[in-house]
Specification:
Layout (H helix, E strand, L loop, with lengths): L1 H25 L6 H6 L26 H5 L5 E5 H6 L5 H5 L5 E4 L9 E4 L11 E4 L2 E2 L21 E5 L15 E5 L8 E9 L3 E10 L2 E11 L6 E14 L5 E13 L8 H7 L10 E18 L2 E18 L11 H9 L11 E21 L5 E22 L9 E22 L2 E18 L4 E21 L2 E12 L3 H4 L12 E14 L3 E17 L11 E17 L9 E16 L4 E2 L21 E11 L2 E10 L26 E10 L7 E8 L7 E3 L5 E2 L4 E9 L1
């Protein structure tokens, strides 16, 4: 299908590029390509496969700090040292350390993350591209880009976040940003650690890590109470990695993962009346259950095709199984009857055991793909050139079943939905870095083609659709001083429609377009005053068409689309200095600030199903879940074996619906009304007495003031995590 049609073109281009590399090997160039190919990671080779012979095969989104300096767009790296120093509990905490990223809590462990970038709605992370070691981490990035699971942050060595024109090397989402989770390199010498932590709310975490001779084995088990009553979370993550070198035949990285979650967790929020009468921890749905099983394998092979070319190939496949049995999906649904719903609106107590309904939303996803990337270093036009070309062939299968049980603990019943949805995608990108002294010009082009299929197994109705797009971009990078770099870029943003949105349940076509935007960025990064590292960026994302998927705002909002504009400023800065202020130790501070003055509906959103305006949507209104300000500020002090820090994570006010409703509706569903801003304070104390001893310990306090705050009204009111006190010890060997 799509992959078959693109394969001959990909092979022809790859052969042509290989011939260019061969010709350039014998040509006189301004730079030495042999030295470039054999050298360690540097700024020119960031993210395109170029690395030292001692490094394992992997596709980086950014790479190291030196590679970040050469990016044509803004980026950030949250490394293992920072994650451990701040005792980061989950991915939401980690990503809030990055300017421009808004992460919304849900159940308490960030097992179903809600990540938004530069004002885009964070619901289910549908507007961001998630990768692990450069490989798709979402279970269906083309056909259903929603996150219903997430690995523990403990698994990763660092987190990379990239925005701007550099996103065109990845895809299919090229609008908001790319989040890449990088797993640790296996050690050659035997090493490992055992880490145990515990806290209030029945929190427990056991982490075992061991490796040697190019292999690494890692297992993490965590469990505890969630943010509200009747939420009990439990997850176990098994991860293995192996690296081997074949000499002239290249090197190979193998990965395998198995993750299982068995939690008691509900989907519905609560109403304003329930919050007022029963408090922030209230959740009546004790019969809801959520089970996830995810396993995957991947391989990355890297081989030199000459003195100035490198071929890196990713092959991957994974399976995701999700069963969610629940008695309510939103505060306004009538699964348990009208009287049950109306009682919730009034704030009356409800008995879920008297509700003779429990629905099973049963999902299975199978995804697989192959992605070769060729990197060439050459001397065209007298410049130091790095050309990167890649193709991806990707396929997804969704098996979706809804079973409507007729008792409060049902595990079977009549089938209400049985759908099979498949997506086949073929993509290619081409990027060249022309570097003349301190100036780098980076044109880029990405092409996506997607074939959709949907079959209703209950009626045997089916349909097919296809979509394709060429996505251009241009970036520059200019070192205006030894420690100061200007970067700028413009590129087209693209996000494909979901399979369920472009084909209806009767197999008919739906008139919904992919998301398309023009994205601009201008920024500075570098070092000030010898020890202050910073990055500042202006951004503007102008959407010709933005799609609001289903219940993305206001609970019952239908699939809708419209024109929008986002623009603002970001600032990230880091400072540390030994002996500052006359102290014996090292004070330090990290800052991540976002100002989003514009997140505007430039046209009223129109429902796709009937062409009618979405209630309350109008030109000039602010988009939902787009706070004007975000801030994370952390300051600390290291001396001897001690490291102490305090961190504030703050979020400004935000609207919950397209109408920008200020006040909740009396006796309503809790799905509208301004969400007040909040600030949460965390504190950490680490003790590492002697590196050779192997022992370390810490204590961490999350939400130290036990602040109660609303984070979401999409399906009713969701509250943030209450105070969490954690203590932990580690023994490294």
């Amino acid at each position: 299908m799509a992959a078959t049609r693109l394969a001959p073109l990909a092979c022809a281009i790859a052969m042509a590029l290989a011939n260019v590399a061969s010709a350039q090997d014998s040509a006189e160039a301004s730079a030495d390509p042999v030295a470039a190919a054999d050298g360690a990671d540097d700024a020119a080779g960031a993210g395109t496969g170029k690395r030292s012979k001692s490094s394992l095969p992997r596709v980086d989104v950014i790479g190291d700090e030196l590679a970040l300096e050469a990016q044509p767009g803004s980026g950030a790296i949250v490394d293992r040292a920072e994650l451990e120093s701040s005792r980061t509990l989950h991915v939401s905490e980690a990503l809030r350390k990055v300017p421009g990223v808004h992460v919304r809590d849900e159940e308490g462990f960030s097992l179903r993350p809600n990540i938004g970038v530069r004002g885009l709605n964070p619901t289910r992370s549908t507007k961001v591209l998630l990768l692990e070691d450069g490989i798709p981490a979402a279970y269906a990035p083309y056909g259903d880009n929603a996150s219903y699971y997430h690995a523990p942050i403990d698994r990763y060595a660092r987190v990379e976040v990239l925005k701007g024109v550099g996103m065109l090397r990845f895809g299919p989402q090229t609008i908001g940003g790319v989040v890449n989770y990088v797993t640790p390199d296996p050690p050659q010498d035997p090493a490992g650690y055992v880490q145990v932590s515990a806290g209030n709310r029945d929190y427990r975490n056991l982490h075992l890590n061991a490796g040697g001779h190019g292999a690494l084995f890692d297992v993490i088990h965590r469990e505890g109470d969630g943010a509200r009553d009747n939420i009990a979370l439990e997850q176990t993550d098994w991860n293995a990695k192996y690296v081997t070198d074949f000499g002239d035949a290249g090197a190979l990285t193998l990965r395998a993962n198995y993750l299982v979650e068995d939690s008691q967790v509900t989907y519905s929020g609560i109403t304003d009346a329930e919050l007022a009468r029963f408090g922030a921890s209230y959740n009546p749905f004790r019969n809801d259950e959520f089970f996830v099983e995810h396993y995957g394998v991947s391989a990355t092979h890297e081989v030199s095709l000459g003195e100035a070319s490198l071929l890196t190939t990713n092959v991957y496949g994974f399976h995701f199984d999700r069963n969610w049995w629940r008695q309510s999906s939103t505060t306004s649904d009538t699964q348990c009857g009208n009287a049950f719903r109306d009682a919730r609106f009034r704030g009356d107590a409800v008995n879920v055991d008297a509700c003779n309904s429990r629905q099973g939303r049963l999902r299975e996803y199978y995804s697989r793909g192959i992605e070769p990337r060729l990197t060439l270093w050459h001397g065209l036009f007298g410049a130091e050139n790095e050309l990167a070309f890649g193709v991806r062939f990707h396929a997804e299968t969704q098996e979706r079943l809804q079973v409507n049980g007729t008792s409060p603990l049902a595990v079977d019943g009549p089938v209400a939905e049985a759908n099979r949805r498949t997506t086949e995608a073929a993509a290619a990108f081409l990027e060249n870095r022309f570097k003349w002294s301190d100036f780098t010009l980076i044109p880029a082009l990405r092409y996506e083609r997607i074939d959709y299929f949907r079959r209703n197994r209950l009626t045997n109705r089916q349909g097919n659709e296809e979509a394709s797009e060429a996505i251009p971009g241009l970036g520059i990078n200019y070192a205006i001083a030894p420690a100061l770099t200007l970067f700028a870029g413009v590129h087209e943003g693209f996000a494909p429609a979901r399979a369920e949105d472009i084909i209806d349940n009767a197999g008919g076509s739906v008139d919904v377009d992919p998301e398309k935007s023009t994205n601009l960025e201008l920024g500075l990064r570098g070092t000030l005053f010898r020890d202050v590292g910073f990055e500042a960026a202006y951004f503007r994302n102008d959407f010709d068409n933005q799609v609001a998927v289903g219940s993305i705002a206001g609970g019952s909002t239908p699939l809708a689309q419209g024109e929008t504009l986002y623009q603002g400023l970001e600032l990230g800065a880091r400072w540390s200095r030994d002996g500052a202020f006359g102290l014996d130790g090292t004070p330090y501070a990290n800052v991540a600030l976002t100002w989003l003055p514009d997140a505007e509906q430039e046209s009223a959103f129109v429902a796709v199903a009937n062409g009618q305006l979405v209630a309350g949507s109008r030109n000039g209104n602010r988009l939902p879940y787009a706070p004007e300000g975000l801030a994370t500020i952390r300051t600390g002090y290291r001396t001897g074996p001690w490291d102490a820090s305090v961190e504030m994570q703050a979020v400004d006010d935000q609207y919950a619906d397209f109408a920008n409703t200020e006040l909740p509706i009396a006796n309503g569903a809790g799905q509208v009304g301004r969400i007040a801003g909040h600030a949460v304070f965390n504190a950490t104390l680490n003790w590492t007495p002697d590196a050779s001893d192997g022992f370390s310990a810490w204590i961490a306090l999350k939400n130290a003031g036990d602040r109660e705050y609303i984070v979401d009204r999409t399906r009713g009111i969701q509250l943030g995590q209450p105070r969490q006190v954690l203590v932990g010890v580690r023994w490294a060997f």
